[in-house]
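TASK: fixed-backbone design
INPUT:
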């Protein structure tokens, strides 16, 4: 069997639970055809670089697969019939990377989407001198 990385983008209108149910159905198809899913990562609702079928956002998921070629072809066939799927891409790789993907590891390092410390009041910025509006007019 070969190793694959598969990314799927689902419509923004579906819920995160429906996106994860889509991942579970993909896993079932792969396992039904003699393959295995080593990792499933749900990246969440993310902005698209450009509009796809009038959508500005999409639910992204990454799957690491160890599956025969017919299983991947059947999964892709079913995805092409699913109206909730905007795009998908399957790439054959030499080995599976089971660590956390850079997308999720960056999110974990930042601690979510909260404000960064020390940015609210702008005090203590030693890299720039304090300037007033009058200094800018000169």
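OUTPUT:
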């Amino acid at each position: 069997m070969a190793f694959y990385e598969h990314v799927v983008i689902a419509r923004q209108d579906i819920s995160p639970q429906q996106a994860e149910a889509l991942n579970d159905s993909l896993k079932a198809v792969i396992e039904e055809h003699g393959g295995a899913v080593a990792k499933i990562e749900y990246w969440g609702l993310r902005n698209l670089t450009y509009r796809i079928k009038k959508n500005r956002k999409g639910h992204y998921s990454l799957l690491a697969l160890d599956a025969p070629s017919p299983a991947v072809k059947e999964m892709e066939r079913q995805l092409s019939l699913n109206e909730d799927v905007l795009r998908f891409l399957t790439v054959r790789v030499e080995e599976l990377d089971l660590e956390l993907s850079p997308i999720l590891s960056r999110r974990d390092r930042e601690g979510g989407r909260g404000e960064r410390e020390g940015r609210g009041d702008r005090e203590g910025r030693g890299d720039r001198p304090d300037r007033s509006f009058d200094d800018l007019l000169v």
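COMMENT: The CA atoms of residues 33 and 70 lie 8 Å apart.
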